[in-house]
Amino acid sequence: MSNLLTRRLALLADDKHRAVLGGGLRGIERETLRVDPAGHLAATSHPVALGSALTHPEITTDYAETLLEFITPAEHDIAITLNKLDAIHRYSYSKLGSEMLWSQSMPCQLPAEEDIEIAWYGKSNMGMLKHVYRRGLAVRYGKAMQCIAGIHYNYSLDERLWALLHDSEADDRKLSAKAYQSERYFATIRNFRRYSWLLMYLFGASPALSASFLRGRPHKLEQLSDDTLYLPYATSLRMSDLGYQNDAQSGLSPHENCLDSYVATLTKAVNQPYAPYAEIGTKKDGEWVQLSTNVIQIENEYYSTIRPKRVIRSGERPIQALCSRGVQYIEVRCMDVDPFEPVGISLETGRFLDAFLLFCALEESPAISEEQGRIYTENFARTVKEGRRPGLTLQHNGAEVTLQAWGRELLDRIRPVAELLDRQRGGSVHAEAMAVQAAKLDDPDRTPSARVLRELRANGGSFAAFGLHQSERHAAYFRSHPPTAEEAAYFDAQAAASLAEQDAMEAANTGSFDDFVAAYRNSNLCKNVG
């Protein structure tokens, strides 16, 4: 444990400061495909009973019309967040009829590309912008890849905590409070890049996939059964080069060292033409097919395991929000859906993530060079494809070390952070979560990815059969726990309000969509970096 981490932990352990540890916020976004009773992609539109996918704050769609996304309110305790997520699931099931929510990160067996419907958000200019953006994703990456689901973990620390650290560290007092907070979040992101391979080992849950997913693409996977491909030691094929990948984005240089470089990288990417996309153009036969021919259409197209975020205002773009008001929270995007948990993530996992992310925030975090960035990317790639391989090594401080040895060292460094969190809230839930993860390092068979492969083999080696079995189990749980009258009334009111808001947006539509897109694109230039 570094001297800096020791000093910061001592400061936060002081009775007069400890309360700030409980002030941060946790939110979860869970993606999940709607499937029919046979486990095939649902052919129905987004249920109107759930409200408007454009304007509902908690129930929307991601890429496809059938890819639901549940968004919890931000809460101070991950236990409350997960209760809210559970309520969204139970309410949704009360409106889904015979359909179910797919239990896996990797998709069910998908229909032909042309039969995967892109999400529809109505005829308002903003609704069309979201739809055309997704048309662009189909052109650039294919529709199958966009049907992958994940868990996004939104995490912030109390601004009083940042102020306390700011006041206590003389070298940083020259920075404004806003600049200091942004710098510390970027330090957190850098440490996340160094150590996130550990999350893939501990929580990766996608070692196999439907053979139809690859659509004929070349691969080096092994055959588990007629309909299933896998890698025997993989933890998360979702996060490998078989999942989110793109040649256009491969040239984006490291940008974790400060807000300025991050914004500059994204600003360049949304304004830099890319020849293969230029050949396609933005329109075909008068119909929009993508928002631009640049490296990325909008900031959200940049695929990253973690993002700095700021709640955006109406009509504002993410780059603008970060420029003008700094980083407010981080979004962890590499977590697989846990197929053994009805809501896709366990409370125990959330407790560990809280300790891990606080460790990343408080530990020393020097700037990352290009070469170091390549090493961290390689460590991550090894872990997602071979994380459970006996004797697997990662690159650490110029040497090859075993994943297990480095993992145990990391847990030893995180443990005092977990203990501090337990002292703040009372009890031992964070220490208990740490113990469960330590057991996975001692025995790879305890990892979710190993458990998935055991269950797959018990289902005849079929990914489709295993996914359907787990989806049915989760559906039975949610259907046997319907929403309370109070919960149903709350979500009914949200659904009605969201539909009314979409109607109002469409009624107020002015100007052409072409002009709307032009204005939106022109708003991405950041004039106030800092």
From TrEMBL:
UniProt keyword annotation of Nucleotide-binding present: yes
Pathway listed: Sulfur metabolism; glutathione biosynthesis; glutathione from L-cysteine and L-glutamate: step 1/2
Molecular-function GO term, any one: metal ion binding
Known EC number: 6.3.2.2
Keywords for this protein: ATP-binding, Glutathione biosynthesis, Ligase, Nucleotide-binding
Reactions accelerated catalytically: L-cysteine + L-glutamate + ATP = gamma-L-glutamyl-L-cysteine + ADP + phosphate + H(+)
InterPro entries: Gln_synth/guanido_kin_cat_dom, Glu_cys_ligase, Glut_cys_ligase
Catalytic class of the enzyme: ligase
GO biological process: glutathione biosynthetic process
Name recorded for this polypeptide: Glutamate--cysteine ligase
